[in-house]
Amino acid sequence: MGEALRAVQLEKSFGEGAAKTHAIRGVSFQAYWGEMLYVVGPSGSGKTTLLSLVSGILKPDSGSVLVEGRDIWKLGPNEIADFRLNKVGFVFQDYHLFPKLTTVENVAIPLILKKQDWNESLKIAMEFLEVVGLAQKASLPPTKLSGGEQQRVAIARAIVGRPDLLVFDEPTASLDGTTGKRILDFVKNEILNDKRCIVIVTHDNRIFGLADRMIEMEDGSIVNVRSGGKIEG
Amino acid sequence: MRGIFKIALKLLVNDRGKFAALVVGITFAIFLIVQLTSIFSGILAKASSTVINTGSRLWVIDPSVQNPLNTIPLPDYVLDAVRSVKGVEYAVPLYSGIGLVKLNSGAYQPATVLGLDDTSLLGRPELIQGHIEDIYSNNAFIVVKDQEYAKLGNPPIGTTFEINDHRGVIVGIGHVPEGSLFGIPTLYTTYSRAIQYLPNTRFTIAYVLVKPKSEAAIAGIIDNVAKIGYRALTDREFEREISNYYKYQTGVGTNIMMMTFIGFLVGLSISGQTFYTFVLENLEKFGALKAIGAKNSELVSMILFQALFSSMVGYGLGVGLSALLIATGKRFVPNYTADIGFWNLALAFVLVLLIAGVSCLVAVRKVIRVQPFEIFRG
Ligand SMILES: Nc1ncnc2c1ncn2[C@@H]1O[C@H](COP(=O)(O)OP(=O)(O)OP(=O)(O)O)[C@@H](O)[C@H]1O
Ligand SMILES: [Mg+2]
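^ Those are the sequences you sent over. The predicted structure of the assembly is below.
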């Protein structure tokens, strides 16, 4: 399997002086195409920060993030925005869907940002709503959907632009156990393929079983990397 | 339309309550601004009615005239002196005074009487009934058919009346471009009859009307008239002085300007506040767009578009409302004075752009500063 992403010696601190938090301490890892990679660890260990560094959301203090061999943090602000738009699909923890737009319009947003034609974008968005099984809810506002359905809309929006890299932060945090498991099953079976890499940050041990590999973090550092989704001891 | 603008529009318009508040605020401000400035330009136009209706290019007045509406009569030698000024094609006197008309009903009604130079009749009104030569017949007066015409009992040609104990007869009905501000009817007669019928001071010429040989001669005429101790000014200058008088010397102008400014502030605060709240409420959404890959410039143009869109809707509604009220006013209220002109609309437009701009400015700063990481962290 080819290398999708390589993080090299990432460092990130927040704040100054006494209030300074060293959130990421010299972290290096790789992610591969076709892989569902989990990042786990206690609260405050730096999982969200790490995910932001590798997806072009937050600039590291030092170190580099290589995607297809190019260092994304050497790009200018507009280029990094384009990188996020074209290469990365985000699923935010609390979805951030637009209540004033319909479900299908929500899904179409990345395409519209890519300056695709409005109607064409809606048509493609509709196909992706079908993929997540919500075509019949297309014209409703997302507020009319259940939590699990909203999560699927967020996933449809993340994949509509066919990004190579998908990043999920706590995707099941606000879902019940079975719904969470069902959605992640769906992601693994329907969304993941060998041209795509999915990085998932989670606390939720009910979905650990789906991981191909797991990175365990503690206090800003990687303390363990293992294959499969079982943590021993 | 580019997709992001369509999204911006939907985010704005589908937030019904905010959008309504925004548009109502702007509409109200524009309504106030247009209404007030239109009333003011209406007043100014009427105040300059003598200048506009007479249509003379150059006017000679006493230099100590402070208020252009109260004339200081000029001695006859001024007329002769002006006639011999280089560049003057001809110069004629105009009489302006107020006579007391006694109607056949027995009622009294004051009226403005304008006495036209006997030979040239310069400054005469356009006649809609009658013949201008009849102004030379005995006791002849021409009445202007304006808002005040009814105050003389809508007299047809042939109506007789008394004016300052002289007999008068209506020989023609005229039309002038601009009605007068003072709410009294206007009668035209000849200069010689006017000074004969109306009580006079020692001097009787209200204005000397001058026709210059050419536009180029005007500056020279003004200089030469100044040398004989009088003041010549063009119709534009005269109108400007009258409007300045109303703007700065009567309190009308300053009050209207203040009210206009208050209208602007009200609009600015309502829409600025609402727009700011709107953006603040959507800040997370803008942040999410940014995280997904929208550039700052795109977000700024979305916000700009939203502010402009609401402003233009408010502008349209405000101007429409104002036009409606003015039209209704003109229909049902005699002497209702308001003119919506290019300048009123342009001023309101500039102010609405300012409202949009300032409202945006505050909001834009917030959106530019929002960090996608904050959104990502939840
Ligand atoms: N903007 C910030 N300013 C200051 N400190 C921050 C900021 N963001 C994160 N931190 C700190 O960095 C550390 C790592 O935070 P991070 O959100 O990455 O943890 P996490 O592993 O995602 O935790 P959780 O499981 O609770 O989401 C924490 O100590 C946090 O307080
Ligand atoms: Mg986190």
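Residues 2-46+251-377 of chain B form one domain. Strands of chain B lie at 58-61, 88-102, 108-116, 126-130, 140-144, 160-163, 166-175, 186-190, 207-212, 231-234.

Shout if you want it in another format.
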